[in-house]
Please model this.
Amino acid sequence: MDNKIDAIKNILKKYGQEHLEEYYQKLDEEKRQLLLNQIEKIDFELINNLYNNTKKETKQNQDEITPIEYLDKYKLYDDYKYYENIGEKAIREGKLAVVTMAGGQGTRLGHNGPKGTYDIGLESHKSLFELLGDYIKEQEKKYNVTIPWFIMTSKENDKQTQNFFEKNKYFGFQKGKNLFFFIQGELPMIDTEGKILIGEDGLIKEAADGHGGIYESLVKSGMTKKMQEMGIKWVFIGGVDNCLVKMVDPVLMGIAIDKGVTVACKSVVKANPHEKVGVFCKRNGKPNVIEYSEITEEMAEATDSDGELLYGESHILCNLFSIDAIERMGANPLPYHVAYKKAKYIDKNGKLVEPDSPNAYKFEAFLFDAFGEVDEMAVLRVKREEEFAPVKNADSAGVDCPKTARELYKKFYKLD
Model:
């Protein structure tokens, strides 16, 4: 044990994180062990590099951005049935699994708990989790097949999430058979001096590594292996906060299979040229998503000969991957993006500090940064009112809130 402690001391000294050792000395034996376990898992070289990157000026982007081709689901005409038949065959053969990313808390909604447990205000008072579960069961009945549901939680909300499911008898699913939970990765948060923060629980303060961590988390948790054992070939990945997400789409699947691509994504056309959303594009000839902050006014307003926006296909986090693509994308971490956030922490005197303004860096990967790993992908435009009702903001925001999601859900399912 002494050798282990000495090795850790040397690592902390090398990377200027000796304050963790000082803090370690003040803990009881149980907390000491937990802290040691955390320290052993940290890639200090990565954290050091990420911190150094926060001090570098952002280079002018020289990437070549061009429009990406897409198909409109409702302009496929004769091809619609062709693609649908291909996808339906694969679904009936049990080749599809669905993944819900549910690592977030509902704090922006004023909800105390995992976002998936939030009730959007329907008369049924069903949570987001139950609404998604109902949809999966509907599709299982329609195609006479089991569609396994994988839910990605976070270290912060895993226990609450699983307790919620247990309390509700797993909404008719069977844990370990057609329902699986796994935890997304996390990275330490650091202050503006590059020091790793200690959280309120007396341990290293960590934050989820963004939706781009999904690939690595699926692989490291053994979920992709489990899927392969079940005969799964295709995996749909979506967010928990979209109550209209259509995870089982034979047309999308049929297009992917027919065109021989390993990634197929859904889009909705931008509400207006300057809507603040990421849009599909090609970056240096490879599929990608460009953030609204990167698009010039001229690009945002550019149209084709039919009057359609050249950069109008919004990424709505509704993506289908072959299982081989997920394994390939999960083999190495994606590049991390930095976010400057407010974070409570314990200072060197053991006092809790609650900042009024951003004071810490968190690092997260974006799911679409992996799109550049493939030469081609399919983009299918769908109708916003049928497939995209996100619950991100409180009702006071007026957009992407419980009220708008509830209205779209009730209209689609004819509940009025």
The domain at 76-278+313-412 is CATH 3.90.550.10 (Spore Coat Polysaccharide Biosynthesis Protein SpsA; Chain A). The longest strand covers residues 313-322. The chain has one domain: 76-278+313-412. The longest helix spans residues 128-143.
